Amino acid sequence: QVQMMESGGASVQSGGSLNISCAASGFASSKAYCMGWYRQAPGKQREGVAAIDFDGTISYADSVKGRFAISVDVAKDKLYLQMNDLKLEDTAMYYCAADPPLSCDADTEVWNYWGQGTQVTVSS
Question: Which residues are within 8 A (CB) of 10 and not within 5 positions of it... i.e. 6 or more apart?
Answer without folding.
Answer: 18, 120, 121
